[in-house]
Amino acid sequence: MESIILQLLNGLDKGSAYALIALGLTLIFGTLGVVNFAHGALFMMGAFIAVTLNMLFGISFEVEDPTRTDFLGNVMMVDTPYVVYWFGEGVGNWLIDWSVPISVVVAIPVMALIGIAMERGLIRFFYKRPHADQILVTFGLAIVLQEIIKAFYGANPIPTPAPEAFVGSFDVGQLLGFDPFAVMYPYWRLVYFFFAALIIGLVFAFLQFTTFGMVVRAGMADRETVGLLGIDIDKRFVTMFAIAAIVAGLAGVMYTPILSPNYHIGMDFLVLSFVVVVVGGMGSLPGAVAAGFLLGILQSFASMSWIIELIPGINQVVIYLVAIVILLTRPRGLMGRKGVMEE
Amino acid sequence: MLGLNAKDARLYIIVLVMLIFAPFFLNPFPETSGLAQFNAGYPDMMQRLVIFGLFAVGFNILFGLTGYLSFGHAAFLGVGSYAGVWMFKLLTMNVLPALIVSTIAAGLFSLLIGYISLRRSGIYFSILTLAFAQMCYSLAYSVLTPITGGETGLQLALDDPRIIGTQQTAEGNIPVPHLFGLPMNSNTTLDLGAWSFTFSVGYYFAAVIFALAFYFTIRLFRSPFGLMLRAVKSNQSRMSYTGLNARPYTLAAFVISGMFAGLAGGLMVSMDPLAGAERMLWTASGEVVLMTILGGVGTLIGPILGAGVITYLEAIVSTINSTILHEWFSGLPDGLENFMVNILYPFVGKGWHLTLGLVFMTVVIFLPGGIVEGGRRIYGLFSRKRRQSDATPPNAAAQPGPGE
Amino acid sequence: MGILEVQNINKRFGGLQALGNVNLEVQEGSCHAIIGPNGAGKSTLLNVLVGKLIPDTGSVTFEEKNVLGRKPHEINQMGISRVFQTPEIFGDLTVMENMLIPCLARRDGSYSLKAFISIPSEKALNTEAEEMLDEVNMLEKRDMQASSLSRGDKRRLEMAMCLVQQPRLLLLDEPTAGMARADTNNTIELLKEIKDKRNITMAIIEHDMHVVFSLADRITVLAQGTPLVEDTPENIKGHPKVREAYLGEAQV
Predict the structure, then answer these.
(1) What interface predicted TM-score (ipTM) does this complex get?
(2) What is the domain count for chain A?
(3) Interface membership of B57 toward C (CB under 8 Å)
(4) I need a labelling partner for A222 at 20 to 30 A (CA). Which of A183, B49, C55, C127 fits?
């Protein structure tokens, strides 16, 4: 029982990331009709916003520390980050410690700009081109973006820690009445899950309760008719692209303490997120979210040692297997609508 | 000739001539000149050109003719190379059995994957093939390590059985792949003044295989089967209302292109008997897609051109380093020299993939028809000019040429 | 016993009864028109006949063989060809290639993997395709790309592609929709010729009464998914029920 709950929890954070990326993919696909292979790159860029901020806050210069001397009696030089020098001990160290949550605030406008630039500069020329062309051009863009990141940050993963306050684990087991230390869950993963739930909730609320969202949903259902009503959908779709970029970016920012990002983290997540979208049903937002969590949890269960002993390698391929089975038995995915992407 | 029409026969002869004389015209710069680094006439490079050409030509049979975009073809190349190395380990170092088994193994494997993936079309098909390829890649790295050699890759060893032929050479080394005793890595060098040309057994063997496969491809393009594959791309609904079942056609195309990939994988290990899982990665699948579209999707010569350009660029661009860049711009004033070097540096050497991605985007955005389409446009531009200067009345809309 | 027998077909889309108890019998060698106001279920019926839709109940037999549940290509191989409302042709291919495909389909069945034969060497098929093109006056356009043809030419090409298969039943879905008067008359002539010379049974869905009354031997009037009357053209003209079906809506 404990192990089941543990696996369930372990699946949640990965599932949250899948769900967030898949949500953005589906938004873009459903509204703009574009298959975006560069969406993983947006996740990666979010992650590197966090990395950048962490590095910026860490930039230091050397000052003399009169209170300390080395063995020769010279005054020692101590690295002091500029932020500490400018804002004082308290604020400065707080900034460094909380760089990841602060990155969230920074990432929103930055990701929105990146999204708008991408849509206006490239994607909009591909609305009427075949899906194969869309796949290819966004695939090329993904390569370019990740290579740029690689040129700046190198090929190795860059650790970006969570704030001190969230280091350590939360004893979920004790809360549920099990023995202490039976089910430990890192605080940050819990934060990630709630953060993802919040973002998903916000996106759904936005689509459900605003006029803007209503038009977008109508556009997803029947683009032509909404166009005939004299509503300029394109303008709204730019906004949707920006929102999708923000969602992917935030998912990336918050994921950095869980997995140190490198330049191909986006691609790794993208392939899986595509599978998630297909399993959920192309064009279905609830489907994308549900499938994201479902596959995340499934993957975590498949990593249990006795299951791996039973079927070696299952943890590596379970997602793909599920996708294949679902596509063959329910061609439209779990919640797909008729007529979406069927020639 | 050989059952080809005049136009195809001409194309085929040009390709044959290119294959035979490749060691000459890929080495246009004298050994001693500074431009020698742009020579591509060394065996390793020429083998890669031919092998990737084969891979792309096969991929084009599926993507170019039927329009089904597979993102998993690298998996078949990987299966082919593993099968080839296993033949070297178990049976003999002769390359012929290895190639045959590589092709068959990849064919069977693509039959299985194609049978499942082709139940869906469009983006779903692409994602299914992608999922399969990624699955193979993960498995090859983990559970299948006994078969694939995992991270180190599958290598030959001294104590491999090699039932037919020698297990070890007289000196106690691992024998090299050969064709009935003719080693693949043996070369003859011809020195002509400042030039030096290398003729490699491996290259010419690969070229013969390529020539045969390309001949088959031309025949396929011009056959009723090829016509049906183009019909699949054009209008599947009309096809089924004309009494045709598209599935066997697409499956056959999928398997044929998978077998081409397997053959390419087999050739790869015949030149260098080492197979690694990274050949199955989906970026490798992306690369063959790029070769095909860069050259011209659905054309005969396009994939060859695309594979040639990409392979050549990769070899050249990835070897350029900052010293070479400094040499190039040494004529400029210092500040400008450093500026140019700094600008270009991210695109060369390890930054080759950045150049690749940019080429990819540029081609898709500006030239969806690839090099062949570009050539056709330039040709059209000139011939129109000529026609106008002949003072013929301005013709109505130019007659659209037949599909090819 | 007719060549095509439709019995008790019912088809529901959600709450909408698209077809209710449809019975239809098409006699061999006749031209049977199906008419009715918009939304009467004509196209649904046609889609059932070619295997695109599967009805909830009922049976369809062609030459006493069951049609339902078969795939479109199998139904075509039984001898039923279909002309679409908007011409469905292979736009990327040339006119001649468009013609060769049905020729091959008729000779080789639903698939054949002949990857090593060149098309020009198939002399008999080429002649057959050219003759058919000549018959519809399109031989001089044989090397044009099909998507660049005019709408009327596309329609003729599609018709030729169906005819070259020598079907025993030809289904036509509004063959003159959106055509100019002159084109419509040409099409009527073409269809008349087909009917007289080739003895092909035709089932035609049409809005244009001029076309219907110049071609049809029998007419079935559909309204709200059920057949209202079936009779000869003479008797259909001025039939009170038919007037009601067409004008009824207007009177409301």
Answers:
(1) 0.89
(2) 1
(3) no
(4) C55
